[in-house]
Design a protein that fits this description.
Layout lengths: L20 H12 L22 H12 L18 E5 L1 H5 L4 H10 L4 H12 L3 E7 L2 E6 L2 E16 L5 E9 L9 E5 L11 E6 L2 H4 L7 E5 L4 H9 L2
Antiparallel strand pairs: 1-2, 1-8, 2-3, 3-4, 4-5, 5-6, 6-7, 7-8
Protein name: Metal-binding protein ZinT
Organism: Vreelandella aquamarina
């Protein structure tokens, strides 16, 4: 198994990250780009302000959260059921060229060439775990033709502040049985900060909780297994 390879350890600190300018720029690029669905559904969480706002204001509010701008008191615990389902890695679609049109689109609006974007996302998406199934408290990794399952319990969240000023939240789960070949910790990031069903996610895993919070280079990314390559491209281009 290769679940605990060095590619799952990285370069920022638990609640405040002081990083080299290049790493910061790449982290911000990762946090702001096409890794999800529009957050246009309602949430049952508390706000300090009134909910009697126009639709445009609500859309702006959700966009701010997606971009990593939110208050601490907006963050709430999330159950593992937020990520329940059958998920596939997007890495094979990068390798076979399916995502090339995404990188070309990004190059039209960004500051890198399509090839530079592809290299950046190759580093981010790379993983041998090509499928993950989450059901109840059970998490199953499919890797190199093998499957391994563990039971996980919630272990809180960490708010990460990047040098660029935007922030992110890691929702953390700890292995609660003696499952072989499963990481002690898994950490979810999906640009949401309170309970809601995930439409995609980035996952970090390993045996050292704090070290995982330092990871900024590799963010294995998963979309629903029911989507084909074109469906994933459509989702990415929409955001």
């Amino acid at each position: 198994m290769t679940l605990f390879s060095s590619k799952h350890l990285g370069a920022f600190a638990i609640s405040s990250l002081v990083m080299a300018s290049t790493s910061t720029a790449l982290a911000a690029d990762h946090e702001h780009h096409d890794h999800g669905h529009a957050h246009d559904h309602s949430h049952d969480h508390a706000h300090d302000h009134s909910h009697d706002h126009a639709h445009d204001h609500g859309h702006s509010h959700d966009s701010d959260i997606y971009a990593g701008h939110f208050d601490d008191d907006q963050v709430a615990d999330r159950p593992l059921s937020d990520w329940e389902g059958d998920w596939q890695s997007v890495f094979p679609y990068l390798e076979d060229g399916t995502l090339d049109k995404v990188f070309a689109h990004k190059a039209e609006h960004g500051d890198k060439t399509a090839e530079e974007y592809k290299q950046y996302y190759t580093t981010g998406y790379e993983t041998d775990v090509d499928r993950i199934v989450i059901e109840g408290d059970s998490v199953t990794f499919y890797e190199n033709g093998e499957e391994n399952t563990g039971e996980y319990r919630y272990d809180g969240y960490e708010i990460l502040t990047y040098a660029a000023g935007n922030r992110g939240v890691r929702f953390i789960f700890e292995l609660e049985d003696d499952a072989d070949n499963m990481p002690q910790y898994i950490q979810f990031s999906d640009h949401d900060i309170y309970p809601t069903d995930a439409h995609h996610f980035h996952l970090y895993w390993g045996d050292d909780r704090a070290a995982l919070l330092e990871e900024v280079t590799h963010w294995s990314t998963y979309y629903p297994s029911e989507l084909d390559g074109d469906g994933i491209v459509d989702e990415m281009l929409a955001h």
